[in-house]
Design goal:
70% of the residues lie in helices and 0% in strands. It has 13 helices and no strands.
Amino acid sequence: MPDVTKTATVAEEAVDAPSVVEAAAPKQDKPRSLWGDAWHDLRRNPYFLVSAVLILFLLMVAAFPTLFTSASPTVGDLVNHYLGKPQLAHIGQADWLGYDGQGRSVYARMIHGTRASIIVGVCVTAIVTVVGGLMGMLAGYFGGVMDAILSRVTDIFFGIPFLLGAMVVLQSFTERTVWVVVGALAFLGWTQMARVMRGAVITVKQADYVHAAKALGAGTGRILFKHILPNAMAPVIVVATIALGGYISAEATLSYLGLGLAAPTVSWGVDVSTAVDQIRVAPHILLWPSIMLSITILAFIMLGEAVRNALDPKMR
């Protein structure tokens, strides 16, 4: 006669077996979207972390320069401070990095010059991304006559040398403020973004979810901004991030040539231009704005490279 107690115990263990397996089985992660996967990779990328910290610091300096120095970037003292040498022991003080040919604090001008460069870079990038992205999206989605017209307009602007065209445009203005420089650079810089967006939209509009949205009766606006734009933005963001450093460099180049920002605007390019005449006797007035300019451009280029690697599956 079988042991009833033993049989019951075996049956209970069999019933509990699935729950034990479920408890022991590892929990599967939820599938991540492209952006979630990119953010997951970016948080582990040292280039992204270093560039992000640098950019956040530069943004803070641009927004609140008086937190880093109380010295005036425009008031000079020729009698006491003409080409004064750096006093490296006086960290954060007006004479820390020396004085320029007009007796102005190099450190104060380096701090306050951050704002002009950041404003130019960010604003030009935002404008060219919106304008170029919109034109590229319309050309890529509708095709036909609209694509031909917008593409030819893009080709015309693309054929104008960027810096040379900006020099010609800025030469026509008697007062070259930050916003005039932003407008000149944006007027000629949107073509690359338009081409990138056009190519991305042509690829995305062939996807099944776009055809499904059309079959369900979705309007053109909904298809463009709800389905196509979010999935075509990845290459545009990569190009925009890298180009931002290029626009800062372009502003500094134009200011150095005397066709960009001009006094009383405080800019690294202006300081580099005025420092050339005293480079042999006072190299420090050229060194520090050049270092800040290089660090800023490098930070945005590093950020763009990190974003490109995170958004491009082939780079992983």
